[in-house]
Amino acid sequence: GNSVTQMEGPVTLSEEAFLTINCTYTATGYPSLFWYVQYPGEGLQLLLKATKADDKGSNKGFEATYRKETTSFHLEKGSVQVSDSAVYFCALSDMEPDNFNKFYFGSGTKLNVKP
Amino acid sequence: DTGVSQDPRHKITKRGQNVTFRCDPISEHNRLYWYRQTLGQGPEFLTYFQNEAQLEKSRLLSDRFSAERPKGSFSTLEIQRTEQGDSAMYLCASSLGREETQYFGPGTRLLVL
User: Fold this and answer.
1) How far apart are CA A22 and CA B30, in angstroms?
2) What is the distance in angstroms between the CA of the first residue and the CA of the last residue of chain A?
3) What average pLDDT values come out for chain B (113 residues) when binned by 10 residues?
4) CB atoms within 10 A of CB B102
5) Residue A16 sits at the chain B interface (C-beta within 8 Å)
6) Is the pLDDT of residue A10 over 80?
7) In 3-state terms, what secondary structure has residue A27?
8) What's the pLDDT score for residue A101?
9) Angle at CA of residue A101, ends B8 and A9, nearest 5°
C-alpha cells in the first residue's frame, strides 16, 4: 500500500541554520510527492512538489528532490528564518482506479526556529 | 489565502448532537475532498466528489457521517450523534480536473464534550 514516514519532531533550530526534514515513502504506483506547510490555526499550504523521479521541487528557499532509488523526498533549506516555524507535512499522491488523486500524508514535523 | 473557505472555523458540541460543516471550494474547481486531522497527525482522507457525484468514501467514514455536494459547488459534511472520538480538525480541499495539487481550506475544529 501507500504510506509516508517523516522524521519526528519537534525540530528546533537557530535562525540561519540549515534545515533537513526527512521523508520516505512506500507506493504501489508512480506517485507525485508534495510538501505542505501548516501555520498555527491555518490549513495546509502547498510548499513544493515533484511529479517524477529526479525532479526537484523548490519554493521560498526550500528544496526537495524525488529520489526513487531511496524512496525519499527530504526537505531542505539553507538558512531558516523565524517565520519558517510551522508544521511540515510530506505527502504522496497516487492515482486511484476511479481516476482521482488520493493523498497520503505523513504525521508532520514541527519546526521551531529561534532568533 | 488559497480561496477555499470553511464554516464554521470552530464548533463545540455535546455528545449525541448533530453538526454540519460547510466548504466552499475555489470556484472553478470540480473536485472536492474532505479530510480529518487529529492532533499530531497528518490529514486522513474521508471522501471525494467530482462535481456533484460522491465517488469515493473511506472506511473512516462511518454511517454517522454524510457528505453532499448538491450542485457541484459547495459541500456539506454532517456528523450525526457525535462522539468524543469525532473531535478533530475537518479539512476541505479542492482541485481542478486532472491537476494533482489540492488546495486546502483553513479547517473546522470540532470539539465534542
Assistant:
1) 33
2) 41
3) 88 98 94 93 93 88 93 94 96 86 93 97
4) 27
5) no
6) yes
7) coil
8) 77
9) 65
Which residues are CB-neighbours of B47 under 8 A, at least 6 positions away? B33, B34, B54, B56, B57, B58, B61, B67
Nearest CA to CA, how far is A38 from chain B (Å)? 9
Phi, psi (rounded to 5 degrees) for A25: -140, 160
Given the C-alpha cell 504510506, which residue does it identify?
Answer: A3
Which SS3 state, helix, strand or coil, does residue A31 take?
A: coil
pLDDT band at A23 (very low <50, low <70, confident <90, very high): very high
Q: How far is A18 from chain B (nearest CA, A)?
A: 24
Cell numbers of B32, please? 472536492
A36-95 pLDDT, tens per residue?
Answer: 999 987 889 999 999 999 999 999 999 999 999 999 999 999 999 999 999 999 999 887
B56 reaches A (C-beta below 8 A): yes
Interacting residues of A35 by C-beta distance below 8 A, sequence separation 6+ = A23, A46, A47, A48, A49, A57, A62, A64, A73, A75, A88, A89, A90, A91
Q: Is B27 an interface residue toward A (CB < 8 Å)?
A: no
Q: What is the pLDDT of residue B94?
A: 94
**Which grid cell sits at A75?**
526537505
Rounded distance, CA B66 to CA B34, Å? 11
Strands A11-14 and A75-77: unpaired
Residue B45: all three cell numbers together: 482522507
Q: Kindly report whether the peptide bond that precedes residue A10 is cis, defined as omega within 30 degrees of 0.
A: yes
The C-alpha cell at A41 is 490555526
